[in-house]
Fold each of these.
Amino acid sequence: MSELHIVGLAGNITAPSKTRALVGQALGLAGDALHARTTLFDIADFGEDLGRARRAGDLAPGAQRNLETLLRADALIVATPVYKGSYPGLFKHLIDLIDPAALIRKPVLIAATGGGEKHALAVEHQLRPLFAFFEARLLSTAVHVSDRDFSEGRLGDGPALDRLARAIEEFTTIFPGAARIRAAAE
Ligand SMILES: Cc1cc2nc3c(=O)[nH]c(=O)nc-3n(C[C@H](O)[C@H](O)[C@H](O)COP(=O)(O)O)c2cc1C
Protein backbone atom coordinates (compact mmCIF):
# COMPACT_ATOMS: atom_id res chain seq x y z
CA MET A 1 0.00 0.00 0.00
CA SER A 2 1.30 3.46 -0.83
CA GLU A 3 2.25 5.91 1.89
CA LEU A 4 -0.66 7.77 3.43
CA HIS A 5 -0.71 11.55 3.23
CA ILE A 6 -2.34 13.41 6.10
CA VAL A 7 -2.89 17.14 5.71
CA GLY A 8 -3.45 19.52 8.60
CA LEU A 9 -5.34 22.77 8.27
CA ALA A 10 -4.95 25.34 11.02
CA GLY A 11 -7.66 28.00 10.80
CA ASN A 12 -5.60 30.64 12.55
CA ILE A 13 -5.33 34.10 11.07
CA THR A 14 -2.50 35.29 13.32
CA ALA A 15 1.03 34.10 14.09
CA PRO A 16 2.37 32.72 16.33
CA SER A 17 -0.60 30.45 16.77
CA LYS A 18 -1.62 27.85 19.33
CA THR A 19 -3.95 26.33 16.74
CA ARG A 20 -1.06 25.83 14.33
CA ALA A 21 1.00 24.31 17.16
CA LEU A 22 -1.85 21.93 17.99
CA VAL A 23 -2.22 20.80 14.37
CA GLY A 24 1.54 20.34 14.11
CA GLN A 25 1.56 18.18 17.22
CA ALA A 26 -1.44 16.15 15.98
CA LEU A 27 0.25 15.60 12.61
CA GLY A 28 3.38 14.42 14.39
CA LEU A 29 1.40 11.83 16.34
CA ALA A 30 -0.64 10.74 13.32
CA GLY A 31 2.40 10.58 11.06
CA ASP A 32 4.14 8.39 13.60
CA ALA A 33 1.13 6.13 14.27
CA LEU A 34 0.41 5.57 10.57
CA HIS A 35 3.86 5.95 9.11
CA ALA A 36 2.28 8.74 7.04
CA ARG A 37 3.62 11.76 5.18
CA THR A 38 2.22 14.98 6.60
CA THR A 39 1.70 18.56 5.41
CA LEU A 40 0.54 21.53 7.45
CA PHE A 41 -1.28 24.56 6.06
CA ASP A 42 -2.72 27.55 7.80
CA ILE A 43 -4.89 30.35 6.46
CA ALA A 44 -1.87 32.36 5.32
CA ASP A 45 -1.07 29.55 2.85
CA PHE A 46 -4.20 30.42 0.88
CA GLY A 47 -3.00 33.87 -0.05
CA GLU A 48 -3.64 37.48 0.86
CA ASP A 49 -6.54 37.60 -1.61
CA LEU A 50 -8.45 34.74 0.02
CA GLY A 51 -11.12 37.10 1.36
CA ARG A 52 -11.84 38.44 -2.14
CA ALA A 53 -11.98 35.04 -3.87
CA ARG A 54 -15.49 34.04 -4.97
CA ARG A 55 -14.39 30.58 -6.18
CA ALA A 56 -11.28 28.42 -5.79
CA GLY A 57 -10.11 29.47 -9.27
CA ASP A 58 -9.80 33.07 -8.05
CA LEU A 59 -7.04 32.10 -5.60
CA ALA A 60 -3.39 32.74 -6.46
CA PRO A 61 -1.74 29.74 -8.22
CA GLY A 62 0.21 28.67 -5.12
CA ALA A 63 -2.92 28.89 -2.99
CA GLN A 64 -4.85 26.80 -5.54
CA ARG A 65 -2.13 24.15 -5.43
CA ASN A 66 -2.32 24.11 -1.62
CA LEU A 67 -6.08 23.64 -1.74
CA GLU A 68 -5.70 20.80 -4.27
CA THR A 69 -3.11 19.14 -1.99
CA LEU A 70 -5.54 19.43 0.91
CA LEU A 71 -8.41 17.94 -1.10
CA ARG A 72 -6.26 15.01 -2.31
CA ALA A 73 -5.17 14.04 1.23
CA ASP A 74 -6.07 10.61 2.58
CA ALA A 75 -7.18 12.26 5.83
CA LEU A 76 -7.41 15.72 7.33
CA ILE A 77 -6.74 17.24 10.72
CA VAL A 78 -8.61 20.53 10.94
CA ALA A 79 -8.41 22.90 13.88
CA THR A 80 -9.50 26.49 14.38
CA PRO A 81 -9.30 28.99 17.18
CA VAL A 82 -12.68 29.70 18.81
CA TYR A 83 -13.80 33.20 17.86
CA LYS A 84 -17.02 34.44 19.46
CA GLY A 85 -18.13 30.88 20.13
CA SER A 86 -17.42 29.66 16.58
CA TYR A 87 -14.69 29.43 13.92
CA PRO A 88 -13.10 32.54 12.36
CA GLY A 89 -14.87 33.99 9.33
CA LEU A 90 -11.86 33.73 7.03
CA PHE A 91 -11.56 30.00 7.78
CA LYS A 92 -15.24 29.59 6.81
CA HIS A 93 -14.61 31.56 3.65
CA LEU A 94 -11.88 29.10 2.64
CA ILE A 95 -14.20 26.17 3.35
CA ASP A 96 -16.90 27.87 1.26
CA LEU A 97 -14.59 27.60 -1.78
CA ILE A 98 -14.57 23.77 -1.55
CA ASP A 99 -16.83 21.76 -3.87
CA PRO A 100 -19.62 20.13 -1.81
CA ALA A 101 -18.60 16.66 -3.12
CA ALA A 102 -14.86 17.05 -2.50
CA LEU A 103 -14.75 15.66 1.03
CA ILE A 104 -17.25 12.80 0.86
CA ARG A 105 -16.06 9.99 3.19
CA LYS A 106 -12.73 11.79 3.85
CA PRO A 107 -11.59 10.97 7.40
CA VAL A 108 -11.41 14.25 9.34
CA LEU A 109 -10.24 14.91 12.89
CA ILE A 110 -11.71 18.21 14.12
CA ALA A 111 -10.18 20.30 16.89
CA ALA A 112 -10.29 23.79 18.32
CA THR A 113 -8.30 26.01 20.64
CA GLY A 114 -10.04 28.47 22.96
CA GLY A 115 -9.05 30.97 25.59
CA GLY A 116 -10.85 28.87 28.22
CA GLU A 117 -13.37 26.05 28.54
CA LYS A 118 -16.52 28.14 28.16
CA HIS A 119 -16.94 27.38 24.46
CA ALA A 120 -15.43 23.89 24.44
CA LEU A 121 -18.47 22.50 22.64
CA ALA A 122 -17.87 24.82 19.67
CA VAL A 123 -16.06 21.87 18.17
CA GLU A 124 -19.31 19.83 18.33
CA HIS A 125 -21.79 22.59 17.54
CA GLN A 126 -19.83 24.47 14.89
CA LEU A 127 -17.09 22.35 13.29
CA ARG A 128 -18.89 18.99 13.28
CA PRO A 129 -21.97 20.22 11.38
CA LEU A 130 -19.75 22.10 8.94
CA PHE A 131 -17.92 18.91 7.93
CA ALA A 132 -21.11 16.85 8.14
CA PHE A 133 -22.40 19.07 5.33
CA PHE A 134 -19.56 17.67 3.21
CA GLU A 135 -20.43 14.08 4.26
CA ALA A 136 -16.91 13.74 5.60
CA ARG A 137 -16.04 10.76 7.81
CA LEU A 138 -15.65 12.63 11.08
CA LEU A 139 -13.80 10.93 13.90
CA SER A 140 -16.07 10.55 16.91
CA THR A 141 -13.44 12.06 19.20
CA ALA A 142 -13.16 15.83 18.68
CA VAL A 143 -10.55 17.81 20.56
CA HIS A 144 -10.89 21.15 22.30
CA VAL A 145 -7.93 22.61 24.15
CA SER A 146 -7.55 25.86 26.03
CA ASP A 147 -4.67 28.21 26.74
CA ARG A 148 -3.79 26.47 29.99
CA ASP A 149 -3.25 23.11 28.25
CA PHE A 150 -0.19 24.58 26.49
CA SER A 151 3.26 24.59 27.95
CA GLU A 152 6.19 26.04 26.00
CA GLY A 153 4.16 26.10 22.79
CA ARG A 154 2.99 22.49 22.94
CA LEU A 155 0.24 20.50 24.61
CA GLY A 156 1.69 19.27 27.86
CA ASP A 157 0.85 15.91 29.47
CA GLY A 158 -2.75 15.90 30.69
CA PRO A 159 -6.35 15.25 29.65
CA ALA A 160 -6.12 17.36 26.46
CA LEU A 161 -3.11 15.42 25.16
CA ASP A 162 -4.80 12.15 26.20
CA ARG A 163 -7.86 13.12 24.19
CA LEU A 164 -5.75 14.03 21.17
CA ALA A 165 -3.99 10.65 21.39
CA ARG A 166 -7.40 8.94 21.55
CA ALA A 167 -8.52 10.76 18.43
CA ILE A 168 -5.33 9.77 16.60
CA GLU A 169 -5.94 6.18 17.63
CA GLU A 170 -9.22 6.33 15.70
CA PHE A 171 -7.22 6.96 12.54
CA THR A 172 -5.46 3.65 13.09
CA THR A 173 -8.83 1.87 12.98
CA ILE A 174 -9.64 3.61 9.68
CA PHE A 175 -6.23 2.77 8.19
CA PRO A 176 -5.37 -0.59 9.82
CA GLY A 177 -2.89 -1.46 7.05
CA ALA A 178 -0.81 1.64 7.72
CA ALA A 179 -0.89 1.01 11.45
CA ARG A 180 0.32 -2.59 10.88
CA ILE A 181 3.20 -1.37 8.71
CA ARG A 182 4.14 1.04 11.50
CA ALA A 183 3.96 -1.74 14.11
CA ALA A 184 6.06 -4.09 11.98
CA ALA A 185 8.76 -1.42 11.62
CA GLU A 186 9.19 -1.17 15.41
C1 LIG B 1 -11.56 37.84 18.05
C2 LIG B 1 -11.36 36.78 19.09
C3 LIG B 1 -12.46 36.14 19.62
C4 LIG B 1 -12.30 35.12 20.56
N1 LIG B 1 -13.41 34.49 21.05
C5 LIG B 1 -13.26 33.46 21.92
C6 LIG B 1 -14.41 32.75 22.39
O1 LIG B 1 -15.54 33.06 22.07
N2 LIG B 1 -14.20 31.70 23.24
C7 LIG B 1 -12.96 31.32 23.63
O2 LIG B 1 -12.83 30.34 24.39
N3 LIG B 1 -11.83 31.99 23.21
C8 LIG B 1 -11.98 33.04 22.37
N4 LIG B 1 -10.86 33.70 21.90
C9 LIG B 1 -9.53 33.21 22.32
C10 LIG B 1 -8.90 32.30 21.25
O3 LIG B 1 -9.80 31.31 20.80
C11 LIG B 1 -7.69 31.55 21.82
O4 LIG B 1 -6.77 32.44 22.37
C12 LIG B 1 -7.06 30.70 20.72
O5 LIG B 1 -6.24 29.73 21.30
C13 LIG B 1 -6.21 31.54 19.76
O6 LIG B 1 -5.66 30.70 18.79
P1 LIG B 1 -4.39 31.11 17.94
O7 LIG B 1 -3.23 31.23 18.91
O8 LIG B 1 -4.22 30.00 16.98
O9 LIG B 1 -4.73 32.41 17.26
C14 LIG B 1 -11.01 34.73 20.99
C15 LIG B 1 -9.89 35.42 20.46
C16 LIG B 1 -10.07 36.41 19.52
C17 LIG B 1 -8.84 37.12 18.97
Amino acid sequence: MSYRIGIDLGGTKVETILLDSENEVLFRHRIPTPPLQTGQAPETRYLEIVAAVCSLVREAASQIPASTTALEKISRTDAEPPKPGAIPADVAVGIGIPGILDRRTGRVINANTTCLIGHPLQQDLEAELGRPIAIENDANCFTAAECVNGAARGKDFVFGVIMGTGCGGGLWANGRIRSGMHGIGGEWGHISIDPQGRQCWCGNRGCIETMISGSGVEAGHKERTGQALPMRDIVAGFRAGDADCQATMQAFFADFGRALGGIISAIDPDLIVLGGGLSNIPELYTQGVARVQDFAFHPGIQTPIVKNELGDSAGVFGAAAIGI
Ligand SMILES: [Zn+2]
Protein backbone atom coordinates (compact mmCIF):
# COMPACT_ATOMS: atom_id res chain seq x y z
CA MET A 1 0.00 0.00 0.00
CA SER A 2 1.27 3.50 -0.86
CA TYR A 3 -0.63 5.18 1.95
CA ARG A 4 -2.31 4.26 5.22
CA ILE A 5 -5.27 5.95 6.90
CA GLY A 6 -5.86 5.22 10.58
CA ILE A 7 -8.88 6.26 12.63
CA ASP A 8 -8.88 6.16 16.41
CA LEU A 9 -12.51 6.19 17.53
CA GLY A 10 -12.71 7.02 21.22
CA GLY A 11 -15.47 7.92 23.63
CA THR A 12 -14.62 11.63 23.51
CA LYS A 13 -12.60 12.14 20.31
CA VAL A 14 -12.11 10.70 16.86
CA GLU A 15 -8.70 11.15 15.29
CA THR A 16 -7.46 10.44 11.79
CA ILE A 17 -3.95 10.13 10.40
CA LEU A 18 -2.56 9.74 6.88
CA LEU A 19 0.83 8.04 6.56
CA ASP A 20 2.95 7.48 3.48
CA SER A 21 4.81 4.24 2.75
CA GLU A 22 7.71 5.42 4.95
CA ASN A 23 5.34 5.96 7.92
CA GLU A 24 5.73 9.74 7.61
CA VAL A 25 2.71 11.67 8.84
CA LEU A 26 1.13 13.64 5.97
CA PHE A 27 -2.07 14.68 7.73
CA ARG A 28 -3.61 14.43 11.14
CA HIS A 29 -6.93 15.75 12.46
CA ARG A 30 -8.92 15.26 15.65
CA ILE A 31 -12.60 16.06 16.25
CA PRO A 32 -14.90 15.47 19.25
CA THR A 33 -16.89 12.22 19.08
CA PRO A 34 -20.53 13.14 18.38
CA PRO A 35 -21.93 13.34 21.94
CA LEU A 36 -25.12 11.74 23.17
CA GLN A 37 -27.68 14.56 23.06
CA THR A 38 -30.41 14.73 25.69
CA GLY A 39 -33.31 12.58 24.60
CA GLN A 40 -31.41 11.25 21.56
CA ALA A 41 -31.90 7.60 20.60
CA PRO A 42 -28.65 5.57 20.75
CA GLU A 43 -29.34 4.53 17.14
CA THR A 44 -29.16 8.18 16.02
CA ARG A 45 -25.84 8.68 17.80
CA TYR A 46 -24.52 5.50 16.20
CA LEU A 47 -25.37 6.83 12.73
CA GLU A 48 -23.69 10.15 13.57
CA ILE A 49 -20.53 8.31 14.64
CA VAL A 50 -20.52 6.27 11.41
CA ALA A 51 -20.90 9.49 9.41
CA ALA A 52 -18.10 11.20 11.39
CA VAL A 53 -15.69 8.28 10.83
CA CYS A 54 -16.43 8.17 7.09
CA SER A 55 -16.00 11.91 6.77
CA LEU A 56 -12.57 11.72 8.48
CA VAL A 57 -11.47 8.85 6.21
CA ARG A 58 -12.46 10.88 3.15
CA GLU A 59 -10.81 14.00 4.53
CA ALA A 60 -7.54 12.11 5.03
CA ALA A 61 -7.78 10.58 1.53
CA SER A 62 -8.26 14.06 0.07
CA GLN A 63 -4.83 15.01 1.49
CA ILE A 64 -2.95 12.47 -0.63
CA PRO A 65 -0.55 14.44 -2.84
CA ALA A 66 -2.20 15.29 -6.16
CA SER A 67 0.61 13.93 -8.34
CA THR A 68 0.10 10.46 -6.85
CA THR A 69 -3.65 10.41 -7.30
CA ALA A 70 -3.19 11.53 -10.91
CA LEU A 71 -0.74 8.67 -11.51
CA GLU A 72 -3.04 6.30 -9.73
CA LYS A 73 -5.92 7.32 -11.99
CA ILE A 74 -3.79 6.86 -15.14
CA SER A 75 -2.79 3.37 -14.02
CA ARG A 76 -6.42 2.35 -13.70
CA THR A 77 -7.26 2.39 -17.39
CA ASP A 78 -9.19 -0.86 -17.11
CA ALA A 79 -11.21 0.27 -14.09
CA GLU A 80 -14.29 2.42 -13.81
CA PRO A 81 -13.52 6.07 -13.06
CA PRO A 82 -13.39 6.61 -9.29
CA LYS A 83 -16.62 7.82 -7.72
CA PRO A 84 -16.53 11.22 -6.01
CA GLY A 85 -15.22 10.75 -2.47
CA ALA A 86 -13.95 7.23 -3.23
CA ILE A 87 -10.80 6.11 -1.45
CA PRO A 88 -7.97 5.19 -3.88
CA ALA A 89 -7.24 1.46 -4.12
CA ASP A 90 -3.63 1.79 -2.91
CA VAL A 91 -4.70 3.23 0.45
CA ALA A 92 -5.12 0.93 3.47
CA VAL A 93 -7.78 1.90 6.00
CA GLY A 94 -7.89 0.71 9.62
CA ILE A 95 -10.09 1.75 12.52
CA GLY A 96 -9.59 1.30 16.25
CA ILE A 97 -12.75 1.13 18.35
CA PRO A 98 -13.50 1.26 22.09
CA GLY A 99 -14.99 -2.22 22.07
CA ILE A 100 -14.67 -5.61 20.43
CA LEU A 101 -15.95 -6.78 17.08
CA ASP A 102 -17.36 -10.26 17.71
CA ARG A 103 -15.72 -12.29 14.94
CA ARG A 104 -18.59 -14.78 14.93
CA THR A 105 -21.44 -12.30 14.44
CA GLY A 106 -19.69 -9.21 13.04
CA ARG A 107 -21.36 -7.09 15.73
CA VAL A 108 -19.78 -4.88 18.40
CA ILE A 109 -19.70 -6.17 21.98
CA ASN A 110 -18.17 -4.88 25.23
CA ALA A 111 -17.97 -1.24 24.09
CA ASN A 112 -17.86 1.55 26.63
CA THR A 113 -19.29 3.82 23.92
CA THR A 114 -22.46 1.82 24.40
CA CYS A 115 -24.35 3.04 21.32
CA LEU A 116 -21.96 0.89 19.23
CA ILE A 117 -23.05 -2.34 20.95
CA GLY A 118 -24.97 -4.75 18.72
CA HIS A 119 -24.22 -2.90 15.49
CA PRO A 120 -22.37 -4.43 12.50
CA LEU A 121 -19.95 -1.49 12.49
CA GLN A 122 -17.46 -2.93 10.01
CA GLN A 123 -20.21 -3.83 7.56
CA ASP A 124 -21.84 -0.40 7.89
CA LEU A 125 -18.54 1.47 7.37
CA GLU A 126 -17.57 -0.72 4.40
CA ALA A 127 -20.97 -0.11 2.78
CA GLU A 128 -20.65 3.64 3.31
CA LEU A 129 -17.03 3.84 2.09
CA GLY A 130 -17.45 1.28 -0.70
CA ARG A 131 -14.30 -0.64 0.23
CA PRO A 132 -12.92 -3.10 2.79
CA ILE A 133 -11.55 -1.77 6.08
CA ALA A 134 -9.97 -3.40 9.12
CA ILE A 135 -11.37 -2.91 12.63
CA GLU A 136 -9.61 -3.77 15.87
CA ASN A 137 -10.13 -3.09 19.52
CA ASP A 138 -8.21 0.00 20.72
CA ALA A 139 -5.88 -2.09 22.91
CA ASN A 140 -4.97 -4.18 19.87
CA CYS A 141 -4.24 -0.96 17.96
CA PHE A 142 -2.02 0.22 20.83
CA THR A 143 -0.10 -3.06 20.67
CA ALA A 144 0.25 -2.95 16.87
CA ALA A 145 1.52 0.63 17.00
CA GLU A 146 4.17 -0.14 19.61
CA CYS A 147 5.26 -3.21 17.63
CA VAL A 148 5.54 -1.35 14.32
CA ASN A 149 6.70 2.11 15.44
CA GLY A 150 7.35 2.06 19.18
CA ALA A 151 8.91 0.31 22.16
CA ALA A 152 8.35 -3.25 20.83
CA ARG A 153 9.91 -2.70 17.39
CA GLY A 154 11.66 -5.80 16.08
CA LYS A 155 10.00 -8.26 18.48
CA ASP A 156 8.02 -11.21 17.09
CA PHE A 157 5.83 -12.08 20.06
CA VAL A 158 4.54 -9.22 22.19
CA PHE A 159 1.89 -8.70 24.81
CA GLY A 160 0.55 -5.13 24.95
CA VAL A 161 -1.11 -3.94 28.14
CA ILE A 162 -3.31 -0.93 28.75
CA MET A 163 -3.76 0.04 32.38
CA GLY A 164 -5.93 3.12 32.63
CA THR A 165 -9.47 3.54 33.89
CA GLY A 166 -9.90 -0.06 32.73
CA CYS A 167 -7.48 -2.79 31.79
CA GLY A 168 -7.08 -4.05 28.20
CA GLY A 169 -4.50 -5.84 26.14
CA GLY A 170 -3.43 -7.16 22.79
CA LEU A 171 -1.37 -10.01 21.42
CA TRP A 172 1.07 -9.57 18.51
CA ALA A 173 2.68 -12.58 16.85
CA ASN A 174 4.70 -12.92 13.64
CA GLY A 175 3.87 -9.49 12.30
CA ARG A 176 0.21 -9.16 13.11
CA ILE A 177 -2.41 -8.85 15.83
CA ARG A 178 -3.99 -12.12 16.91
CA SER A 179 -7.49 -11.27 18.04
CA GLY A 180 -8.57 -14.90 18.13
CA MET A 181 -11.69 -16.90 17.37
CA HIS A 182 -14.06 -14.47 19.12
CA GLY A 183 -12.08 -11.24 18.87
CA ILE A 184 -11.20 -11.25 22.58
CA GLY A 185 -7.52 -12.22 22.24
CA GLY A 186 -5.41 -10.35 24.80
CA GLU A 187 -8.34 -9.35 27.05
CA TRP A 188 -6.45 -10.26 30.20
CA GLY A 189 -8.34 -7.61 32.24
CA HIS A 190 -11.31 -9.95 32.55
CA ILE A 191 -9.47 -12.98 33.81
CA SER A 192 -11.16 -13.58 37.17
CA ILE A 193 -8.52 -14.37 39.80
CA ASP A 194 -10.44 -13.76 43.05
CA PRO A 195 -13.93 -15.24 43.52
CA GLN A 196 -14.29 -13.11 46.70
CA GLY A 197 -13.15 -9.98 44.87
CA ARG A 198 -15.05 -6.89 43.77
CA GLN A 199 -17.89 -7.15 41.27
CA CYS A 200 -16.75 -6.36 37.72
CA TRP A 201 -19.01 -4.73 35.11
CA CYS A 202 -18.50 -7.83 32.92
CA GLY A 203 -20.55 -9.93 35.36
CA ASN A 204 -17.72 -11.77 37.15
CA ARG A 205 -15.98 -11.06 40.44
CA GLY A 206 -12.32 -10.35 41.08
CA CYS A 207 -11.29 -9.67 37.47
CA ILE A 208 -7.76 -8.33 37.05
CA GLU A 209 -9.37 -5.03 35.96
CA THR A 210 -11.02 -4.66 39.38
CA MET A 211 -7.55 -4.81 40.99
CA ILE A 212 -4.94 -3.09 38.85
CA SER A 213 -6.80 -0.50 36.78
CA GLY A 214 -6.88 3.07 38.10
CA SER A 215 -10.50 2.65 39.17
CA GLY A 216 -9.67 -0.73 40.75
CA VAL A 217 -6.79 0.62 42.83
CA GLU A 218 -8.96 3.57 43.95
CA ALA A 219 -11.79 1.18 44.96
CA GLY A 220 -9.32 -1.01 46.88
CA HIS A 221 -7.95 2.02 48.73
CA LYS A 222 -11.46 3.11 49.69
CA GLU A 223 -12.34 -0.37 50.96
CA ARG A 224 -9.17 -0.51 53.04
CA THR A 225 -9.20 3.03 54.47
CA GLY A 226 -12.65 4.53 53.89
CA GLN A 227 -10.96 7.35 51.94
CA ALA A 228 -12.00 8.11 48.35
CA LEU A 229 -8.74 9.29 46.78
CA PRO A 230 -7.91 9.65 43.07
CA MET A 231 -5.01 7.51 41.82
CA ARG A 232 -2.63 10.47 41.54
CA ASP A 233 -3.17 11.32 45.24
CA ILE A 234 -2.60 7.68 46.23
CA VAL A 235 0.70 7.72 44.30
CA ALA A 236 1.67 11.06 45.88
CA GLY A 237 0.84 9.74 49.37
CA PHE A 238 2.89 6.59 48.69
CA ARG A 239 5.92 8.72 47.77
CA ALA A 240 5.39 10.99 50.80
CA GLY A 241 5.42 8.00 53.17
CA ASP A 242 1.69 7.83 54.00
CA ALA A 243 1.15 4.35 55.50
CA ASP A 244 -2.32 3.80 53.97
CA CYS A 245 -1.18 4.80 50.49
CA GLN A 246 1.92 2.65 50.84
CA ALA A 247 -0.24 -0.37 51.74
CA THR A 248 -2.48 0.26 48.73
CA MET A 249 0.49 0.58 46.37
CA GLN A 250 2.18 -2.55 47.74
CA ALA A 251 -1.09 -4.45 47.13
CA PHE A 252 -1.18 -2.93 43.62
CA PHE A 253 2.40 -4.04 42.87
CA ALA A 254 1.64 -7.56 44.15
CA ASP A 255 -1.53 -7.80 42.02
CA PHE A 256 0.39 -6.45 39.01
CA GLY A 257 3.03 -9.16 39.57
CA ARG A 258 0.39 -11.87 39.96
CA ALA A 259 -1.42 -10.80 36.78
CA LEU A 260 1.63 -10.35 34.55
CA GLY A 261 3.40 -13.37 36.05
CA GLY A 262 0.38 -15.41 34.96
CA ILE A 263 0.51 -13.97 31.44
CA ILE A 264 4.23 -14.80 31.17
CA SER A 265 3.58 -18.34 32.38
CA ALA A 266 0.77 -18.76 29.85
CA ILE A 267 2.35 -17.31 26.69
CA ASP A 268 5.98 -16.33 27.52
CA PRO A 269 6.20 -13.28 25.20
CA ASP A 270 9.48 -11.67 24.03
CA LEU A 271 8.42 -8.35 25.56
CA ILE A 272 5.52 -6.73 27.41
CA VAL A 273 4.75 -3.08 26.64
CA LEU A 274 2.64 -1.01 29.03
CA GLY A 275 0.27 1.82 28.09
CA GLY A 276 -2.53 3.81 29.70
CA GLY A 277 -2.33 6.33 32.54
CA LEU A 278 -0.84 3.93 35.09
CA SER A 279 2.07 3.15 32.76
CA ASN A 280 3.40 6.61 33.67
CA ILE A 281 4.14 5.53 37.27
CA PRO A 282 7.95 4.95 37.32
CA GLU A 283 7.78 2.69 40.39
CA LEU A 284 5.75 0.19 38.36
CA TYR A 285 8.96 -0.65 36.42
CA THR A 286 10.97 -1.23 39.61
CA GLN A 287 8.79 -2.36 42.53
CA GLY A 288 5.96 -3.65 40.30
CA VAL A 289 8.19 -5.56 37.90
CA ALA A 290 10.10 -7.03 40.87
CA ARG A 291 6.90 -8.79 41.97
CA VAL A 292 6.38 -10.47 38.57
CA GLN A 293 9.14 -12.97 39.40
CA ASP A 294 7.16 -14.15 42.45
CA PHE A 295 4.30 -15.39 40.28
CA ALA A 296 5.87 -16.60 37.01
CA PHE A 297 6.61 -20.28 36.53
CA HIS A 298 10.36 -19.87 36.04
CA PRO A 299 13.12 -18.98 38.53
CA GLY A 300 14.87 -16.40 36.34
CA ILE A 301 12.30 -14.35 34.41
CA GLN A 302 13.99 -11.89 32.03
CA THR A 303 10.97 -10.67 30.04
CA PRO A 304 11.45 -6.95 29.33
CA ILE A 305 8.45 -5.01 30.72
CA VAL A 306 8.73 -1.56 29.21
CA LYS A 307 6.88 1.71 28.89
CA ASN A 308 5.27 2.64 25.57
CA GLU A 309 7.00 5.17 23.31
CA LEU A 310 4.03 6.59 21.42
CA GLY A 311 1.80 7.79 24.26
CA ASP A 312 -1.60 9.06 23.11
CA SER A 313 -0.60 8.64 19.47
CA ALA A 314 -0.50 4.83 19.64
CA GLY A 315 -4.22 4.41 18.87
CA VAL A 316 -4.18 6.22 15.57
CA PHE A 317 -0.80 4.81 14.42
CA GLY A 318 -2.00 1.32 15.35
CA ALA A 319 -5.22 1.77 13.39
CA ALA A 320 -3.12 2.73 10.36
CA ALA A 321 -0.85 -0.29 10.94
CA ILE A 322 -3.72 -2.81 10.91
CA GLY A 323 -5.33 -1.27 7.81
CA ILE A 324 -6.25 -3.27 4.72
ZN1 LIG B 1 -14.50 -8.41 34.29
